[in-house]
Amino acid sequence: MRVLAALSGGVDSAVAAARAVDAGHDVVGVHMALSRSRAQHRNGSRGCCSIEDASDARRAADVLGIPYYVWDLSEEFEDTVVADFLSEYAAGRTPNPCVRCNQHIKFDALLDRGLALGFDAVATGHYARIVDVPDAEGGARRELHRAEDAAKDQSYVLAVMGADRLARSMFPLGDAASKDEVRAEAAERGLSVSVKPDSYDICFVADGDTQGFLRERLGAAPGEVVDADGDVVGEHDGAYAYTVGQRRGLGLNRPAADGKPRYVLEVDPAANRVVVGPSELLSVTEISAGEVTWLAEDVPAGEWTEVSVQVRAHGDPVPARVLLQDGRLFTELASPLRGIAPGQSIVVYQGSRVLGQGNIVKAGRGAALSRA
Question: Where does the chain bind ATP (predicted)?
Fold first, then answer.
């Protein structure tokens, strides 16, 4: 197959491309330039897609002996991932930009361009597995599964890709036992990125100051911080800088009557108000989600299904049951979860298999969510 290998400049994508070459595919490397600042430099382990990353990707391609190109996707990235990030926070929700980047950039813009140029698939350094399961008609059903290495599993941020994108994707690192194994393999192949630190945090907020980034882009918008009874207990510079479950940086004028810590319970952008309260009010047992991407056509809609769900990229899965109905995903948790914020992704699993995902719209307790 003709395979387009996404080279980020890190060790994972380099080894993934190398494994695609070893498998006999005709591989071409491409680095996605996502920053509008061509002079952007990497800040330690923070950020990605910098000028250093592009150089590292080129060196990896040279070692592998594959053609290498840089594609400028900065406009698409700004108009989709960054714009979505800002609009979601402005609306009082908590987005995951890595999910949006995989959806709009790596498996929309990149794959679509690759297919238009005659490539058959895109290979990335994500830690996840693709399993082809034979069906009754003699064909195969393609499934997305967790990676062999649970500590590095990235299936959570890939669930949004959809069945059509999954059919054109390759994740050569899905069966890697550990990140140490991948680094050792990179060193054996002579790839200098074998010792490069992993990037973390939000790539376009390289200094890690998310609140500062939001304030710079959205501007100051002073308002009140109130308790669950509506009493004013503090002030804020912008409700968008708060997220459900947050404890630190609340800037409260006085402690709670019982002396216990208070947490953000709700962000109300319409009233420009942040509601805080005790931790017990954060616990929810029901979640409803929209913008559903469902990968499991063999799992019938309209019926409750026993599953596990994950609501954070590095969170633990919890037992639950879900109902897919009229394009919405309803979840009843076997035990309460805390700090569930609108805008987060909820990903549904059966064992290691990803069934689908949705964007959380509302969370509550008991019969708080209507399925009408």
Answer: 6-13, 32, 125
Mark whether 203 is an active-site residue.
yes
Residue 335, annotated ligand binder?
no
Question: What pTM did the predictor assign?
Answer: 0.90
Give the residue among 327, 315, 48 at the shortest CA–CA distance from 198: 48
- Is 270 annotated to bind ligand? no
Per-residue pLDDT at 40: 52
Q: What is the pLDDT of residues 226-268, one digit of tens each?
A: 999 999 999 999 999 899 999 988 878 778 888 889 999 999 9
The answer to whether residue 101 is catalytic is yes
Q: By percentage, how much of the chain surpasses pLDDT 70?
A: 94
Say which CATH superfamily domain 220-277 falls into: Adenine nucleotide alpha hydrolases-like domains (2.30.30.280)
Q: Which two tokens stand for residue 232?
A: 């004013």
102-116, 145-159, 167-181: the lowest-pLDDT one: 102-116
Tokens representing 259 are 């002396």
Catalytic residue among 48, 49, 98, 101: 101
Return all residues near 307 (Cβ < 8 A) that are at least 6 apart: 319, 320, 321, 322, 348, 349, 350, 355
Burial letters 191-205, b for 16+ CB under 10 A, else e: bebbebeebebbbbb
Residue pair 56/193 in contact (Cβ under 8 Å)? The answer is: yes
Q: Render pLDDT for 341-370 as a digit per residue (tens, 0 to 9).
A: 999 999 999 999 999 999 999 998 764 455
* Separation between Cα atoms, residue 333 and residue 285, nearest integer Å: 5
370 known member of a binding site: no
Question: In the prediction, which pLDDT does 41 show?
Answer: 47
Q: For residue range 20-39, list pLDDT tens digits in order.
A: 999 999 999 999 998 766 54
Query: Does the annotation flag 13 for ligand binding?
Result: yes
Q: Domain residue spans in the chain?
A: 2-195, 220-277, 283-364
Q: Was 11 annotated as part of a binding site?
A: yes
Would the annotation count 6 as a binding residue?
A: yes
Give the sheet arrangement for strand 273-277, strand by strand: 232-236, 223-227, 273-277, 263-268
Give every CB contact of residue 232 below 8 A, 6+ residues apart in sequence.
Answer: 224, 225, 226
2-195 topology per CATH: Rossmann fold (3.40.50)
